Amino acid sequence: MACRRRTAPALTGLLILSSALPAGAAAPAPVPMSIEDAIRTAFANNKRIQIQEKEIRAAKAARLGAVSAFLPKVNVDGGYTRNDAVLGEAVPLAGETEKDIGLFTGYENDIRAGASVDQPIYTGGANLAALRKAQIGIRVQEETLRATRLDVELDAKRLYYGLLLAAENERIARNLVAQARSHYENVRDKYAHGTASRFDLLQSKIHVSLLVPQLVQARNAIDLTEADLKKLLSLPMRAAILPRDALLHVPVRIDEESFLRTALERQPEVILRTLGVDMGEWSVRQARAGRLPQVAANLRYETAADSAGDLLASRHSLWRAGVSVTVPIFDGFYTKSKVDEAWARYAQAGLEREDVLERVAVEVRRACLDLRQAQAIVDSQRDNIVEATEALRLSEVRFDNGVGTNLDVIDAFVSLSQAEQYLAGGIYDYIMAKSYLHRTMGESVLTEE
């Protein structure tokens, strides 16, 4: 509860976060924002996420293209040709129901129309492999989008809690300046009554002047961090942000084995490398299809006449249907090169997956170590604050009674502020260690749709 009392005042300091405003312009009302609100805003406005969403649409369009390879291709064609000279008028061989020989020799006004249907029957598995690769490609883009969202979420947490940390440091610096000024006033009164030396007076005054730049730096840190956060959220620089959360320490139970299992199951990078292996396997099958026979069926209907009104007459029409089989014999080692390349890519994908698995184990270990380190800092500084507060009280009492020195009071001020800063920094480090762990495990604070 002591930590809550120290961090809560930091929120009021964030009301001065807007950029410089034109003369006479009213400052915009601060917008309350929780960490979930910040993440949702980042998801909605981030350009990287929007770009990746377009990649998913492109991947789905590519899958439709892969499906089209299984479907028949239907074409309609027609044309008109004016011939300078053709054979004489054709004479039917046996009655008017026979085909007009003119269909083959042409007309002076040659009007033609036709339609064709081409249907692939067997492509050696190339079409199936292309379809499977397109389906995997959609999953690749979806996981890439999830990875991008997790990265943006981590950035939002870093800046959002960084803003809280900057505000807490500003509060500590402001309190330290106020305490130093109060102490200077006390020393000045004692000097006026002859109970303090001029050295104590000058020392107290210098101490105040040395603390003012730290306060200015702390306020600048708030402005800079807020500007980075607004850039991430694509908010105007004049906007004012009022965080609704506090810089609180919420410990978690460290279970490295459980964390690692979750990371291996859910981290987008692991899933992407696994999909890469699957993609490589289908690439090998697709390349091998170049060695296998290709079978296709074709149906063609066409008609020709010397006038548009005769095009539909049966004696002017002609159809043909057939099946073609192509057996590759020698292609100059082109197929072999493609198969060898696909095998190399497949092996590469397997190595990349192993590398990611090893890297994930290191990332989980690092996150757990960071959690333990931050926890140790928080635990130690909580006790230090209690002791530093008591030390400051005793140093002031001793100085008022003439048995302590002015330097003891100044040192007690600095020790207390440092303990408070270390505690705030330790809490921030613990929050970021948890955030990094969630990113490693592929988890988000928001429910994934």
How would you classify the helix and strand content by structural class?
alpha+beta
Main beta sheet, described?
4 strands, antiparallel
Give the strand order of the largest sheet, numbering strands 1, 2, ... along the chain.
Answer: 2-3-5-6
Query: Rounded to an integer, what's the Rg over CA atoms?
Result: 39 Å
Number of helices: 10
Shape: elongated
**In what range is the share of β-strand residues?**
5-15%
Characterization of the model:
With 449 residues, the chain is of the alpha+beta class. It has two domains: 2-17 and 29-69 and 125-291 and 334-440, Outer membrane efflux proteins (OEP) (Up-down Bundle), CATH 1.20.1600.10; 74-90 and 98-122 and 293-327, Outer membrane efflux proteins (OEP) (Single Sheet), CATH 2.20.200. It is built from ten helices and six strands; from the N terminus they run αβααβαβααβααββαα. The radius of gyration is 39 Å and the shape is elongated. The model is unreliable at 1-24 (pLDDT under 50).
